[in-house]
């Protein structure tokens, strides 16, 4: 199965006619509250597609915890290793204006309490997973610890980009990043800013930093993967995009599910771009993810 070690949040989304200035009060035109956090999103995506998924993480002792876990439970994710801690559940306060520009404030809350001790105490869950999925929204020591305990494949989605120790990057098979994250990461770990580098070159440069394989997601254009067999570009199906939020997490969840089933990387990526494309076709993050029986958009020609 799949073990996701990562963040669990509640997304509090408000829509405003324009962003407020410092000191200003504005009325929102609408607001929604929904479960989120990259770890939770990816766990929901993999479980809905039929993977056996366990989640390691933490929620607070507030009313938000229930909201945060609602769709994880609905997808059948094993929540035995989700630890209740004192204080608030993680919150992402997302403000969206008329033209779709957003600002986001994240309160890590319980996610900041996911440390190496919490992870090490759940070593059995990590060791029995075929794929361990990690992101950048919990303390990096916890992710590094999970990577050391893994006996299966480690999928490292470095979103957001955080500083990682060399052994964590070297465990990544694959490292998954979007284009924006890829450029940030190259600047961070390799001290390179190469504005003219094309996508394939960027992915190869990232692999040279130590990752065993690299997947670069390219939005509507699809994705590109680099492993020992070289560079493969995979187009995304064309769809009418309604809401692209959480597409990357749908992609990662689908990729983890297929890798756990034993697919080769490029085969798994061919499936994951279709799941990402499905997710942009409807509103919301977790609610937009497909179930095993849903018809996915066909692969691009
Ligand atoms: P992120 O959400 O992290 O920014 P991307 O934007 O690269 O990640 O999207 C992840 C995947 O979702 C892509 O590889 C692609 O399969 C799919 N996707 C995203 N946006 C679109 C789109 N406009 N049309 C079709 N597929 C999309």
Helical segment tally?
Answer: 10
Q: What would CATH call the architecture? A: 3-Layer(aba) Sandwich
Over the alpha carbons, how many angstroms does the gyration radius reach? 18 Å
> Structural class of the helices, strands and pairings?
alpha/beta
How do the SSEs run, as a string of H and E?
EEEHEHEEEHHEHEHEHHEEEHH
Number of domains: 1
- Low-pLDDT residue spans: none
Strand content: 15-25%
List the helices and strands and how they pair.
Elements (H helix, E strand, L loop, with lengths): L1 E4 L3 E7 L14 E7 L1 H11 L4 E7 L4 H11 L7 E3 L5 E7 L5 E6 L8 H5 L2 H5 L3 E4 L5 H10 L3 E5 L8 H6 E7 H12 L8 H10 L5 E4 L5 E5 L2 E5 L12 H14 L4 H15 L22
Helix pairs in contact: 1-2, 1-9, 7-8, 9-10
Give your account of this protein's structure.
It comes from Microbacterium soli. It is found in: Cytoplasm. Belongs to the carbohydrate kinase pfkB family. There is one protein chain. The protein has 301 residues and is α/β, with parallel strands linked by helices. The chain has ten helices and 13 strands. The chain has helices at 38-48, 64-74, 116-120, 123-127, 140-149, 166-171, 179-190, 199-208, 247-260, 265-279, and strands at residues 2-5, 9-15, 30-36, 53-59, 82-84, 90-96, 102-107, 131-134, 153-157, 172-178, 214-217, 223-227, 230-234. It has a single domain (2-7, 37-89, 108-288), classed as Ribokinase (UDP-N-acetylmuramoyl-L-alanine:D-glutamate ligase), CATH 3.40.1190. The strands form two sheets. A nine-stranded mixed sheet has the order 5-4-1-8-9-10-11-12-13, with helices on both faces. Strands 3-2-6-7 form a four-stranded mixed sheet. Strand 11 and strand 12 (223-227) form a beta hairpin.
